[in-house]
Each structure stands twice: as structure tokens, then as C-alpha cells.
Amino acid sequence: MPGENKPMIIENYQSVVSDIKHAAALSNRQATDISLVAVSKTFSADCIQPLLAHGHRIFGENRIQEVEEKWPYLRSLYSDIQLHLIGPLQSNKVRKAIQLVDVIETIDKPDLLDRLCRITQEEEKFPDIFIQVNIGEETQKAGCLPVKFSELVAMARSDYKGQLRGIMVIPPIDQEPAPYFAWARQLADDEGLASCSMGMSGDYKIAIAQGSNYVRVGSAIFGQRETQSHKVNDPIQHQ
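^ thats the sequence. predicted structure below, dont judge the formating
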């Protein structure tokens, strides 16, 4: 199994929390305005439980199948877990996602949003959502184009009965992330949206300086994952 041993996971976690507080202070922000999403994809329940016992409650997963395998048991132990889906949501997994997660960060198409609106009403359960924007306009990445963001926001506000929290982005991996984070913050502000989900293990401090409210950190807490082959549209960078 990849990852660090349990004491090291807690040590890493405390270091990340400290860095978040420091980055917030440098930007004259309150650390309480920033939520840490611990990205636990590929890690077992045994790796996650030390963080739960330590008091952390917000986690992110890429795949609904993995959510199904790990989280019902963990929720039976800790009822106040908040689980974010941060990977692509396939149309045939929408119902499962509604049943299993609290926040969906990867709404990026009108037809996906339309299906979500319909099935949430059938299930009478309404996860909070983010609109994912392909901020670097990269062909291999999921997310709507920035020019389509306003359209999806308007549709969500009109048709979705749950809460639209904000925007989610992943900057291009080979470029300076700060301008992309700043652009995402501006897009959110222009639409009157409170929250930006941006920043991962390698750049979350930069994201905080540019106004991030949710940082998605995995490897800096749990350690490196095993190398795997991933589909082109699988956002392996969500960590």
C-alpha cells in the first residue's frame, strides 16, 4: 500500500495546517476562511482513520467506486464527515454520487447539470456543487471553458435546488499557477460566488494568496501514491 505510516500522516497533516495558517496570515486572511480537503484517493480506510481520530472531517475522492468501498464504514464511525467528489462525474454515476457524497466539485457541462437537477429531486438529496472550469483551456483536462462559466452558473442558480458554492480549477502543471488562480478568483467574484476550490500539494500556499477557500491536498499528507496508468481525462493532479 502506498503512503506514509500513521504517525507520519499526522505529522504531515499538522505541517500542512500550519502552512495554511501562515499563508493566510501573509495575505491578511483568516485561516478559518480556508478549508483543507484531505485527498484520500487510493488510500485505505486504515490510512484515513488516524486523521479522523485527530479531528479532521473534510475529505476528497476521485472515483465513486472508491467512495462506495471505503466511506460507508467510515461514516458509521464518524457521522459528521464531509466528502467531496473531485474527479470526473460520469452520467451513469450521478445517482450514486448524490447518495454518497456531500459536495460535487466537478460539474462542467449543461447536460450533466441537467441530470443532476433531475435526479437530486428524485432522491430528495441535494449535494453542494462547484462548477469546474478548465482555466488553462487544455484539451486533456475536464472542465468548462472560462467563456462558458457564466452560462453554467446561471443554469445552476435557475434549476438546481442545492447550493452552488463556487468555482473549481486546476492550473496547467507546467506554468506559474498564480495568474490562473487570480483569474479563477475574478471569475467567481464576477458571478458573486463566495468560494474557490484551488490549490493542491505543490501550490496550495500560492492558491491561498490568490483567494482560495478550499485547498485539495493529498500527497503532502498521505505520501506519494503508487504510479498508475490513468485515462487522459482522469485528473491525477487533484492532490
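The beta strands are 35-39, 58-61, 82-85, 103-107, 128-133, 164-169, 195-197, 214-217.
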